[in-house]
Amino acid sequence: MDLNTVLDVRDARSPVPWRPGDAWLGGGTYLFSEPQPHLRRLVDLGRMGWEPVRELPDGALEIAATCTIAQLSRFGKAWGAPAAPLVEQCCRAFLASFKIWNMATVGGNLCNALPAGPMISLTAALDGVCLLRAQDGSLRRVPVADFVVGAGRKVLGEGELLRSVTLPARALASRTAFRQASLYGLGRSGALVIGVLDPVDGSLAVTVSAATVRPFRFWFPLPPDRRTLRAVIDAAVGADDWFDDIHGLPAWRRHMALRFAEEIRRELTGYTAETGDTTGTSAPGGLR
Q1: Which of 16, 97, 167, 176 would be 61's cystine partner, CB 3.0–4.6 Å?
Q2: Is the domain of 58 the same as that of 163?
Q3: Alpha carbons 227 and 262: distance in angstroms, whole number
Q4: Which domain holds residue 104?
Q5: Residue 228: how many CB atoms within 10 A of its CB?
Q6: Given this model, what pLDDT does residue 280 score?
Q7: Are 201 and 221 in contact, with CB atoms under 8 Å apart?
């Protein structure tokens, strides 16, 4: 779609004073998908030269905001970490054409803050941290789970830029489980739940997204039993937190999220049909 209110496109390598009507341009798949009558100038990040995915000395993974879904997918397929399968599962959750894969960016998906954003699901589940850069050059770090605060809402300030997302080494060494539901075969995610089991201390994190207006990450120091898991989710996710749109009613989204969370608990924590519980000890958990 043509943006006929845009009068200028500037290269982000040459800093310019931020003004009303400016917007960062990454892949542009959202910006050019619908009218943006408030925009007057785009600041293009396409030539910043940021390395798409970089393994850090401590084993962590830094994903540039300009990394495309295609680049992340290629990296994930060749990556040997235990959490590597989750990368491709979340990339496939886009259910998008190759054109979108080669243009849409990880940063754009996070900054759109749509409930069904699978890069939000991936990075929140793996305890990712956003690096944000303000117009004066100052930096701040915000956990992905706190970066998105509602449907289409994030904590970015005026002119602030998402530079990258860092995934810690410990999360990347974890076992993962993935569940996704949509009302139809090639539809937007109505519920997406990810489990991450820490190999060091046996803690379990369950992240609920797509079904909710923002990602909810629940951390348990020890694997919970079925009742505890359900109670913790229901206590934290209020009636207004379940998303409601054409892709699914809140009651259905809640049902699928709770069902998937239980399936993931069983898959990752040694559920036995004989006892109907995990082999570990129940423990309370909470948002983290």
Answers
A1: 167
A2: yes
A3: 9
A4: 53-170
A5: 18
A6: 43
A7: yes
- Residue 11: beta bridge partners? 44
Q: What is the rounded CA–CA span in Å between residue 270 and residue 278? A: 6
216 and 112 housed in the same domain: no
Percent of the chain with pLDDT over 90: 82
- How many angstroms separate the CA atoms of 161 and 36, rounded? 19
Given this model, what pLDDT does residue 287 score? 63
Q: How far apart are CA 277 and CA 263, in angstroms?
A: 12
Within this chain, do residues 71 and 164 fall inside the same structural domain, yes or no?
Answer: yes
- Does the residue 284 lie in any domain? no
Question: What is the band of 94 on the pLDDT scale with cuts at 50, 70, 90?
Answer: confident
Number of domains in the chain: 3
Antiparallel, parallel or unpaired: β 8-11 and 41-44? parallel
pLDDT of residue 191 exceeding 70: yes
Asked if 265 contacts 257 with a C-beta cutoff of 8 angstroms, the reply is no
Q: Is the pLDDT of residue 100 over 90?
A: no
* 195 and 125 housed in the same domain: no
CA distance 82 to 261: 20
